[in-house]
Specification:
The protein is an all-beta fold and 196 residues long. The chain is built from no helices and 12 strands. A 5-stranded mixed β-sheet has the order 4-10-9-6-7, with no helix packed on it. A 3-stranded antiparallel β-sheet has the order 3-5-8, with no helix packed on it. Strands 1-2 form a two-stranded antiparallel sheet. The chain starts with 11 loop residues before the first strand and ends in a 14-residue tail after the last strand.
Length: 196
């Protein structure tokens, strides 16, 4: 991607030729030519929904756009367009939640497609970063990051042990323990109702 002086060339389609001359007889081979694309431009990638800094709750649609002149359609692994979610303002661990092989294009009305539905009710309330990671055929990469916060008052991780139980004082499964987690600091009560 550089000229004889070491300067980076502009993105374009370049033509090359190959010539060969026999050093003993002076005979020349027929010239061969071809073209090669130079691409230093990273792919386009953006998350259009949610917006940066948004406070999220419930089920949140994630909408995004991604495209490139040299789109790489990885039909084996679909790793050229991936969505990650990381906990904190500067995540050190990213969980991949979605991937695709095709560009993400707007519909006829210009709306970005929904690529993922994030259920924030099953994650702790915290800061998160949503990252769209896109790579093109030349290996250029774009990461589009959107910082968000989640806040829900939701009950999750509900468990009951022993089930069934038998309170007959034989010291075997006489009690049952019901536990749960709540996404926010809250007062909570467990009510047990008669079967009728």
């Amino acid at each position: 991607g550089k000229d004889e002086s070491g300067n980076t060339l502009s993105d374009a389609t370049y033509t090359y030729t190959i010539d060969a001359v026999d050093t003993i007889t002076g005979s020349s081979a027929q010239q061969v030519s071809g073209t090669i694309d130079l691409d230093n431009t990273p792919p386009e990638a953006s998350i259009t929904t949610p917006l940066a800094g948004a406070s999220l709750s419930g089920h949140v649609p994630v909408k995004a756009l991604a495209n490139d002149l040299h789109w790489w359609r990885d039909i084996m692994f679909y790793r050229n367009c991936e969505l990650y979610i990381g906990k904190g303002t500067s995540p050190t661990y990213w969980e991949r939640v979605w991937m695709a092989g095709d560009p993400l294009m707007p519909d006829a009305e210009g709306n970005a497609p929904v690529i993922y539905e994030w259920d924030t009710t099953v994650t702790p309330n915290d800061d998160y970063v949503i990252r769209l990671h896109v790579i093109d055929l030349a290996g250029n990469v774009t990461d589009a990051d959107i910082p968000v916060k989640t806040y829900n008052v939701a009950i999750y991780n509900v468990q009951d042990r022993e089930d069934p139980f038998s309170p007959n004082n034989d010291n075997s499964k006489d009690t049952s323990t019901i536990t749960a987690s709540v996404t926010a600091s809250s007062d909570w009560v467990i009510n047990i109702k008669d079967p009728s």
